[in-house]
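User: Design a sequence. Structure:
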């Protein structure tokens, strides 16, 4: 008997899930996305691309471990595109967390202990070694110490998504690009399909929302509340410079809510050190991006750039105001909606956890199990929407580049 699975969203989460499910006995996988083929208009296309294994909770660490294993395995699917220490679109650059105060150093020591407990490689370094590891990004005059994670990496999310889509299609999955999902077909208290903008019904036995910041819109049309709050976030790029390989480590300043990335041919920097700027789901356009607002963002970016060594501070050449999701506990919404059989969520998932989350969800779908209870999308059922939104926005400044 054929099991029809429809995935709404062809970003890195939806494509990862399609790869996991396609080819399994009896699974017929269809992926719907309103973006044209090869275009990543959602959060995948705007992610800073940090792949850090250590999470604040064990479940996130395990999802990240699984994600790294899968990203490493993708190299054979994209000859010539592999990066040192990884597969297509993944490079083991390492990550360096930098403290600029005694309090921030305490955070690094706590994270070093968590890494040891999780069996991860991590090493505290002094300010001089931190600057030597990332000379373009770490100012030895302000650094107190650093924490180096050699096994972390950076992602080129577009390559990772494309590689997994190719594997999914080779196993029989179908991708319908330029196709907008507008509603869900519900009969006898169960989801039986997805309605498209042209009035077509795509029948399904299982429907997965992997549509990122737009997920609450489709869920609401089915009478389901998805406790996900879209927020806008600043990231800027410097001007082009001669490309260099290997790239330096991803750098984070946890105490300052700032992160920076060596993109090879330019540097980039992002910051969470500003008041959260929520975006109403109904106000979202077709891209997970908003106009640059100036003001508060300009000030936050200027403060972030001041952390770099004076010789390597740059005037922003490109300014990006991307939109991503926050949740009331800063965790993904992954698993079935218990009150509406046939509907699953794979939303609020970072690139850091995407492939691991997809693998866990595929096992749940194929085996009929709910998956990790800590990530259940309806775990906040019965709580006031306003309170959930307030808590979600309260986590924004705690993120400092989860991925």
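Assistant: Done.
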């Amino acid at each position: 008997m054929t099991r029809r699975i429809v995935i709404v969203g062809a970003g890195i989460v939806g494509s990862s899930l399609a790869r996991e499910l396609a080819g399994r006995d009896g699974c017929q996988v269809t992926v719907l996305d309103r973006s044209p083929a090869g275009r990543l208009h959602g959060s995948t296309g705007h992610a800073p691309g940090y792949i850090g294994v250590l999470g604040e909770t064990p479940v996130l660490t395990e999802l990240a471990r699984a994600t790294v294993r899968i990203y490493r395995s993708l190299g054979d699917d994209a000859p010539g595109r592999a990066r040192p220490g990884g597969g297509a679109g993944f490079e083991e650059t390492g990550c360096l967390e930098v403290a600029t105060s005694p309090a921030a150093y305490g955070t690094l020591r706590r994270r070093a202990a968590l890494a040891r407990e999780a069996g991860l490689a991590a090493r505290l370094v002094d300010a001089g070694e931190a600057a030597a590891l990332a000379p373009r990004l770490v100012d030895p005059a302000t650094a107190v110490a650093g924490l180096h994670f050699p096994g972390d990496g950076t992602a080129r999310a577009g390559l990772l998504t494309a590689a997994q889509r190719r594997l999914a299609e080779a196993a029989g999955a179908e991708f319908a690009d330029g196709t907008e999902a507008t509603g869900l077909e519900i009969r006898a208290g169960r989801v039986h399909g997805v309605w498209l903008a042209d009035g077509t019904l795509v029948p399904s036995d299982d429907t997965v929302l992997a549509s990122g910041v737009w997920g609450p819109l489709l869920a609401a049309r089915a009478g389901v509340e998805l406790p996900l709050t879209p927020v806008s976030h600043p990231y800027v790029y410097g001007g082009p410079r001669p490309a260099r390989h290997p790239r330096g480590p991803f750098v984070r300043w946890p105490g300052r809510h700032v992160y920076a990335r060596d993109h090879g041919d330019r540097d980039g920097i992002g910051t969470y050190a500003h008041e959260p700027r929520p975006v109403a789901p109904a106000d979202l356009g077709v891209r997970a991006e908003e106009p640059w607002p100036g003001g508060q963002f300009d000030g936050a970016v200027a403060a972030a750039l001041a952390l770099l060594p004076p010789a390597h501070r740059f005037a922003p050449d490109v300014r990006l105001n991307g939109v991503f999701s926050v949740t009331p506990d800063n965790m993904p919404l992954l698993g079935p909606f218990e009150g509406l059989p046939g509907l699953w969520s794979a939303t609020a998932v970072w690139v850091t956890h995407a492939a691991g989350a997809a693998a866990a969800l595929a096992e749940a779908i194929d085996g009929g199990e709910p998956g990790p209870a800590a990530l259940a999308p309806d775990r906040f059922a019965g709580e006031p929407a306003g309170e959930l939104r307030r808590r979600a926005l309260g986590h924004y400044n705690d993120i400092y580049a989860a991925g």
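The CA atoms of residues 231 and 390 lie 12 Å apart. Confidence is low (pLDDT under 50) at residues 76-86.
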